[in-house]
Structure formats: structure tokens, C-alpha cells
Amino acid sequence: MSTDIKTIKQEIKYFLLINFGLIAFISIFLFISASSLDSSKLIHNFSVMFMYIPAFSVIVVLKKFSNCEFTSNVEQFLRVFAIFTLVRIVTSIVDVFVFKSTFISSLIDTFISLYLVVLILSKGSEFKVLNLCLTKNLKKVIFVVLIFFLVTIGRSYVGAILDGSSTVSMKVDFLAIVKSFIINFCFGFNLFFGEEFGWRYFLQPRLQKLYGKRPGVLILGFIWGIWHLPLCFTLYNPKTPVYGVIHQVAFCMLLGVFFGYAYMKTENVWAPILIHLVNNGIIMLDESYESVITIDSILIGVVANAIFFLPFLFAKEYKSNNVEESSTLDL
């Protein structure tokens, strides 16, 4: 990452323009698909498509604006991901108007995930330049993933208590979680890489350079949360979209504290990738998940998440605060 403040600001500007510009464009077709009959599969397909966009935006910035050069295997990895992001955008749109099915898009997701996983694991040392070598600080990576799993269980218990449940019960189906983890690792790596390469590898250190470690990670959490806005209106909370957006932003800001801590502690993008994978897997297995958001559920969520995630703001990884006095985000 460049240490020049002007360059950092330009990189952030280009990243946000490309990222949110593509999301706005894709959302046109997302809302069209939401108005059709039996739209749930098409909407979910777009939510998967969204996950490609942050990493694609980073690749464009690094290659076209920052002129970064990498080894042939890393270049191949980035090029393949970028090309298939564009292909995936096209197929998602075609699915809405022609096929009315997500079969082709799903095949692309499966192929590209397996291809990238094999490439990155077989050429691991070359990917240190992107903080994508799995063996880098592997013990720390495993540690933060386990901590997140335990924190998630504790958060669920506290949430149930705050919700006024007379009996707090939580069945943890470890077999289902492990199965979900393996499937997502093999067939969904591209998606979780797509988000975390954008949010944690690229945007987090740049925002922290401008604002300091704690404010930077909170600003990132807000950006990450508002990025989900079209999905709140169509997939997550279509009956209460405004509350859904507020809930999503608050959740991402607090969850982002732990993600930021995990990335700084491990200096490895695999840490937030695996944590994101675990988080989404648990959410999909949670039968109590409510799509209708209320003020009460927002408050309960904020309190429960704050109890378990905010303390990580005081971890030693957040203590050194390097901020350029004259730096402001002039986008």
C-alpha cells in the first residue's frame, strides 16, 4: 500500500465509485427480478453476485490506476476472477429475462471457486504479496476463527435473554456447521474472497491510515453495511426494509470490529474469509432468523453485538494509532 495520502485517497475514491456504481447498475435488474413471480431464486442469485464486486473493484484499482505488477500465477488469479465477475454479471441479468433459472450462474460459481482454491493453495507462497497465503500465521488464523465461533454462541444466548425468552435454548448442530463450512470453502471461496479482499485487504488499511485504526474500522463497517441496502429491500427484510438497513449497518459496524481485529492480528486475508464463511453458515442454519425487523430487534441486536464485539476495539492490535494530521477523506 502506498504511504502517500493523496494516492490513498484516490485509490479509495476509485474503489468506492466502481464498487457502488456496479452495485447500483446490478440493482436495477435485482429490483426487476423481485417484481416477478417465484423471484426468490433470482434475488438470491443477485445477492451472490454482489459478493464478487468488492474484489473486482480492488483488482481494477490495483491494475488500472495503481499499476501494480505481480507474479504470473497471481496475475492469472486476479485476471480470472475479474473476467468471471463480468461473465457472472451478464449471466445474472440474462437469467432474469431469458432462462428464469440460476443454473448457469451456479455452474460458474462452482467452477471458479474450485479453480481459484486449487490455484491459491498450490501456489501459496506467491500469494503472500496479497496476504493470501494460508500458512501465514496459521495458528493465529485458527485462533481467531475459534474465538469468533465461541463469541457467536455467546451472542446468541444473550440475544435470546434480551428478547425475553422464558427458556434459553440453543441447539448447536456441529455436524451441520462443519458440513456447511466444507461446502462453502470448496464451492464458495470466490464469494467470501470477493468481499474480504475488498473490505479488509484493501479498504481497511487505507481508511485506518487516514483516520486511525478505531475510527477507520468503524467507517469501513458503515460502508460495508450500507452496501447491503438493495438486498435489505429485496431479500433480507422486504417487509421492513428501512429498519433492515439500520439493522444491517449497526451489525456490520460491530461485526467489523472483530473482522478488523482478526485481520490485523493475523495479517492474513484467510482469517476474515473463514470467519465470514462461518458467520454466513451459522446464519443459514439458524431457523429462528426473522426477516421482519422491529425497533426492539434492532436494539437487542445492537446490545448483544456490542457486548461481544466492541471489547475487541481495546485489543493491542487497535492501540497503535497512526494518523496523518493533515489527512481528510476528500472524495
UniProtKB/TrEMBL annotation:
Keywords: Membrane, Transmembrane, Transmembrane helix. The keyword Cell cycle does not apply. It comes from the Bacteria. Residues 185-281 form the CAAX prenyl protease 2/Lysostaphin resistance protein A-like domain. This is Type II CAAX endopeptidase family protein. The keyword Signal does not apply. The chain crosses the membrane at residues 12-34, 46-65, 77-97, 103-121, 141-162, 174-194, 215-236, 242-262, 269-285, 291-314.
